[in-house]
Amino acid sequence: MHDFAIIGGGIVGLSVGMHLTERFPDARILLIEKEDHFAAHQTGHNSGVIHSGIYYKPGSFKAKFAVEGLKLMYDFCQRQNITHENCGKIIVATDEHELPQLDNLLQRGLANGLAVTKIGPEQIKEIEPHCNGIAGIRVTTTGIADYKGVAATYARIINERGGELKLGVRVTGIEEHEGGSPLVQTTAGDFPAKFVINCAGLHCDRIARLAGASSQAVFHLKQAMGGGKTHLLVGFGLLQNLMERAGHCHGGLWPFHGRVNTVFDPALLGR
Percent helix, strand and coil across the chain, each rounded to 5? Predict the structure, then answer.
């Protein structure tokens, strides 16, 4: 019997697995991923940003975890020779009505302990020659990282510490085993475990249902994860155009457009 069975081989599941091997070195740990490689979904298809935490409410867990987490991520990438860059970013106002929002964001960044400064048009041009703005905020701690590389390193560490990794294995059910412990049923056989940890990302509701969670509980889980909201839409034509202009963006560039931010990041642009 395994002590921990982790479902999901994205960055969350792999991070959980790695830290469990550190905290419980004698534990038997199993990680199951239905795809034939790790980081196959969201982990391997994002802009690769190491977020500063400037947008989060001061004193919140989001702000605390972002500020502490970016330091840990830079340190981990450096120690493990994972491609990353502390490129910084600027948040740009292009119209007078955006200035109050920019000032509020500056105060939020300062309250979160970030090294943020307000800059004018000339400084914007010095940092990003192809950007036009009337004012901006320079955030020095933002960066980019190869999160596929991070995930692969987590997997390697789990394996080196004796954890068991299964790729191309789909979970088909979760039943109660002898003594009341869970039994994870998969396309590669059944695996009893003392604890099952659901890290299946967008599929976590399906795994929860397999474990007997009610529809109401699953609904609240989806709502907590932002289900039903569209966070980012990028048309292929726009993305292709941005890719062609990759060399024009030196760091992260976030212009205000009312309530919606258009994101230009070096990682997204193939830099």
Answer: 40, 25, 35
- What is the mean pLDDT for each group of 10 consecutive residues in the chain (271 residues)? 96 97 97 96 92 94 95 98 95 93 95 95 93 94 96 98 97 88 94 94 89 65 46 36 51 50 40 41
Edge-to-edge, what's the strand order for the sheet holding 49-50?
49-50, 143-145, 84-85
H or E segment and range at residue 7: strand 2-7
pLDDT of res. 56: 94
Q: Hey, what CATH topology would domain 2-45+148-224 get?
A: FAD/NAD(P)-binding domain (3.50.50)
Instruction: Using alpha carbons only, give the angle 213, 218, 220 rounded to the nearest 5 degrees.
Output: 135
DSSP code of 81?
Answer: T
| Torsion angle in degrees (nearest 10) through CA of 101, 48, 223, 16 | -130
Whole-prediction pTM = 0.79
Q: 210-228 b/e with 16+ CB inside 10 Å = b?
A: bbebeeeebeeeeeeeeee
- Give residue 241's pLDDT: 44
Residues near 49 by beta carbon (within 8 Å), at least 6 away in sequence: 142, 143, 144, 252, 265, 267
Spell out the domain ranges in the chain: 2-45+148-224, 49-145+232-261
Amino acid at 40: A
**What was the pLDDT predicted at 211?**
87
Q: Residue 212's pLDDT is what?
A: 84
By C-alpha distance, which of 254, 235, 214, 220 is closest to 124? Answer: 254
